UniProtKB/TrEMBL annotation:
SUPFAM superfamilies: Nucleoside diphosphate kinase, NDK. The lineage of its organism: Bacteria, Pseudomonadati, Bacteroidota, Flavobacteriia, Flavobacteriales. Keywords: ATP-binding, Cytoplasm, Kinase, Magnesium, Metal-binding, Nucleotide metabolism, Nucleotide-binding, Phosphoprotein, Transferase. It comes from Chryseobacterium lacus. This is Nucleoside diphosphate kinase. PANTHER family: NUCLEOSIDE DIPHOSPHATE KINASE, NUCLEOSIDE DIPHOSPHATE KINASE DDB_G0292928-RELATED. Belongs to the NDK family.
Amino acid sequence: NNITFTMIKPDAVADGHIGAILNKISEAGFRISAMKLTQLTVDDAKKFYEIHSERPFYGELVTFMSSGPIVAAVLEKENAVADFRTLIGATNPAEAEEGTIRKMFARSVGENAVHGSDSDENALIEARFHFSGREIF
Ligand code: ATP
């Protein structure tokens, strides 16, 4: 079995979508192996999104991701990374498939409701960034 890492981003938490998003995740067959409500500091967000530091939206992304509480979680399922990215849909909700989490709950391309890891390697790095060993079950 395989894992991915997700965050329910500040927009979706503020809009009251935690329950609905977790329900979609459960219905899609993911097991929650770690989860917490937390808030990223500006430094946390800078570190987490370091790979995007040269992108024009980096500052906006760091400000947004540290602007309010998020839900961080580790999800387990066969083919977790790819299947979760299918479940969340395209980065821009305007381009996301009907029924995907971003289509249903995102505000915009920047405030797009959820994060999903893009590789098995990054899933592990991101899970360890947010959780200690004894918080992952
Ligand atoms: P994530 O890594 O959050 O799962 P992704 O892989 O779909 O998203 P990336 O291209 O890696 O998308 O961008 C990372 C995040 O940066 C996006 O989820 C979004 O919040 C933000 N972002 C991407 N493109 C833009 C943009 N054009 N304007 C503002 N923010 C953006």
